[in-house]
Amino acid sequence: MATSNSQNTIPFPGRRPLKVYAFDPSLGRMLGNHLTLDVRYEPLKPGPVGARFAVVDYDGNAKMFYEAVDLDHPAILLRGGLDPTESDPRFHQQMVYAVASETLERFEVALGRRIRWRHAKSRTAPLKLFPHALKQANAFYSRDAGGILFGYFQASQDTQGDVLPGQTIFTCLSHDIIAHEVTHAVIDGIRQYFTEPTNIDVAAFHEAFADLAALFRHFSHQEALIEALQRTGGRLYGPSLRAEASDGTENSPIGGQLASDNPLVFLARQFGMVSGHGVGLRDAIDQKADPNDIRVLTEPHARGSILVAAMFDAYFTTYIRRTADLFRIYRAGSGQANPVDLPMPLATLLAERASKTAEMFFQICARALDYCPPVDITFGDFLRAVITADTDLYPVDAHRVREAIMQAFRRRGITPDGAGYFSEEALRWPDAPSELPPVNGLVFGDPNGLTDQEKAINAPILRRYAKDNAALLGFDPTQGRIAAPSFHPMFRLGEDGVLRIDMVVEFIQTTTEWFDPAIPELGKFEMRGGVTVMIASPPFEGEQRGEPRVRYVIPRKRSKERFECQRSAFAAGGMMTSDHRIDFALVHGA
Amino acid sequence: MAGIVPVENAGPIIGAAGIRVRMYRVGFGDFFLLSLKQDDEVAHILIDCGVHAKPTNSIDDAVAQLKVDTKGHLALVIMTHRHADHISGFAKCAATFKEFQVDQVWMPWFEDPSNAQAVKIQAGITAVAQRLQMAFSANASPGNSSFALMAGNILGFDIAGQSSNDLALSVLHKGFANTPSKVAYLKAGDDAPLPDVLTKMQLSAEILGPPTDPKLVSQMDGKNHQYLDQLDASTGKTDSSPLFGGQFNSDGGAFGDEILGQNGLLNVTRKIAQAQPDVIRAIAQQADNTINNQSIVVLFEFNGKKLLFAGDAQWGNWQNLLFGGAFGAPGHTALTEEAKAILKSIDFYKVGHHGSTNATPVDALDAMRDGIVAMCSTAVGAYGSEKNKSEVPRVPLMDALKAKTGGKLARSDQAPVPGADTFPDPLDPAFDMPTHELFIDYHL
């Protein structure tokens, strides 16, 4: 009966619905907290184990595996995934798989290409997710373990708020924590050397970027937004949600009359509540921007929050601008200036603009990764990358987003090296030197990446190119071999409807230096200089494909200052693994 | 108790500038006496008095000798920071110190009871250290020992039901003959009050640390992490029973070799075991650093000679001095001219933090002039490991210092004490050990 007649097969849908917590279990069903994510469909083995992620539920504390969920089981398929619960590990496995897949997809859409993991061994193996790896209030990405370790722990007995004393808190059920950690893995996949804390901004950038990815997602789910909009009178950035029915005091005995935190502007809310720390964006954006912070804050999260605050300052500014017309229309129809109840149609429109703007900001940040220098990132470099990447795709700053970003960064004292003015033109990376010859023979592949054969063609071409043009690319040819550790094709649709195809290439020159040549006992460290090169596959000239040309050479050159910086950072050596990489286990845990 | 009878007039001040630096050898801990002579006037400055690990000579003997050396009168007592290895002597020898006249006491501003931020920081660190101590006593292992020492160093040890650090602080505040003490709580840039006798001798003192920038300091209290804090859960041994009441236990049979590769299951369990981070240790390290960074850093000048006492100041404290702000922040990557000038000018350096790797930055060492003299109170094997490049004292740093000083580096563990490890190099003839090998002197 069940013969496989190919003509009559019902195709699998492109998406798989899976239920998750929009925030974490502490919010119950508030604000659309029980959310269905539609992730890309792929056949899954129990785990779930798919092509990109393998959930392996091994508890390192109990030294025990937990039963693995089979998301392809009809009973689960029929109900669109297991319902959210803290008490069944199979839901935990489903949630880490779903949120990790969502996060990865958002990056792949923004970057226009497939992201590869940086594993110890194979780069095609899936990233492993360990939902209950440790009994610790910690979760971290480990290149060595080939994945992300999520911890669980007991809340202390004096915990208050929405958490029971002694309750088990699972970091794998926090949407934010999953998104944050997957982002670390994504960045490591894109930029091999961003895990070397060669200056004060590197570890902070990692934390900031991962927080940004998690936070912008808060604003991209419309269901959650509509309720928050209604209860903040449209001020999404407010610290609290108005009570459902207020008696005008803060001491009402009735829950429905009490205001609550606005979870949109907090990160990992449940976690923060339990660990007793003020958390999230509010901390950063509540205070007036202080340009002195950039001078004194060194702890990675504290320093990273400067960047997070700058980006969200720009986001909320853009949101306010983009919704001003809606509020004007509303007021013109005799709506109040500070509305208590937003009409549903207005809330829906606001939610739509807020989520579109959030998605746009996320994409701006994500795309900028490809425009960052390959080593030794600074906040100033990131600003230049943001401006360049966005200008590249959208020459006209229609929503004045870039202006908002520049102003927000300037207010926080984030200034790039080497840009003379604080204007779009000055902040854009300069065009590549016109003397650079075309990169003949380069193969661009397709949006799924390059095949092994294509890679085998490109690698020698690029190495040769770097060698032949070392000086023009900003290298010192006498300082040894120039490696090309990565090259990725990118396929993006510009606003003019033209498909743009680029290749982003990292060139790195590594030398070994003495900590102090006069005192050889102090030993040596590795010093890297490098450039990110953007090569465009040009449009057709007549019936001929044009020659691939270098558009940008984004430098992190060797300099005395960088040398000193790196030498001292390595000599000080905090939160580093023995091979001079960021130890995320310690950055997060302590 | 006292095995050594104190010696009168041991090692009189003979240097041309009238300066004698005396390092008492009591083990892993700082106990320095700076004595100054001008015409017939002699005055004494005590900089720390403690030991917390690897004890050698009895600290009772050393304090008894101190009393004889100073005739029971200290013009100034400096407590650089509140670690047991810098203050335990005040507690252990409280009875002796009760007979001392002390004109002036200096402490870092973190000890100021009227400063709410300071009180909060110290209370927070003490609470963290108490938790750590519980955790380490429940998880005692050789690998944990030096981290357990760090927690103990913050809390001190038990003396008749009281913490030795609490007792020491109380002695410093009100335990000398002329009680209560005249205490100044200092920060970088302060005009530090000197007693008349030192002013008359024209000693000058410049306070270079600790920093006060509230944001730098708030990072020093280690409480500002956005999330993922661990301590609440880590008291004592963790319960290792499986989650979910054991209802979902499995043997991992879903993960055959076709999914995780050959021996995949074994690899996974091994990797997870390896990846369990030592967060408790990291917190202990951080709490330790925080207190070290509270250290008073003082530059003395007397008769044209400059002496730098840096307590246990580590990176966070130094970088403010050296780079004028957070190192690596724009405009703060090179030594400030001021820092260079100071470092170039000093004649004597009390090596920071017992010779640990992050207490004497390469840049600071580079900027010092060749031929400078240094003293370091230390002991091999108390902290860190060579494998992690964290041993104290750090071997390459000691070698570098030796090169810088042209061999004029004295270590407190350089002469044998029965029952204690000795660093085998002979003491450079620039230094003296006049009696009982209880202390090492340097004359300027």
Structure description:
The complex is a heterodimer of chains A (590) and B (444). Chain A has three domains: 16-190, Elastase, domain 1; 216-248 and 257-427, no CATH class; 452-558. Helices cover 37% and strands 17% of the residues of chain A. With 590 residues, chain A is of the alpha+beta class. In chain A, β7 and β8 (147-154) form a beta hairpin. Chain A has helices at residues 74-78, 89-111, 175-190, 200-218, 222-231, 269-275, 281-286, 293-296, 300-332, 344-368, 379-393, 401-411, 424-427, 452-468, 470-473, 560-572, 584-589, and strands spanning 15-21, 34-40, 53-55, 58-59, 64-66, 127-134, 139-142, 147-154, 168-170, 240-241, 260-261, 482-493, 499-514, 524-537, 540-541, 544-545, 549-556. In chain A, α4 (200-218) runs parallel beside α9 (300-332), α4 packs antiparallel against α10 (344-368) and α9 packs antiparallel against α10 (344-368). In chain A, the strands form six sheets. In chain A, strands 3, 6, 7, 8 and 9 form a five-stranded mixed sheet that branches. In chain A, strands 12-13-14-17 form a four-stranded antiparallel sheet, with helices on both faces. Chain A contains 17 helices and 17 strands. By secondary structure, chain B is an alpha/beta fold. Chain B has helices spanning 59-70, 84-92, 94-97, 116-138, 145-155, 164-174, 196-200, 214-220, 257-260, 264-275, 279-292, 315-323, 337-345, 362-367, 395-405; strands at residues 19-24, 31-38, 41-49, 73-78, 101-108, 158-159, 162-163, 183-186, 204-209, 249-250, 297-302, 305-309, 348-350, 373-376, 409-411, 439-443. Chain B has 15 helices and 16 strands. In chain B, β3, α1 (59-70) and β4 form a beta-alpha-beta unit. β5 (64-66) of chain A pairs antiparallel with β10 of chain B, so a sheet runs across the interface.
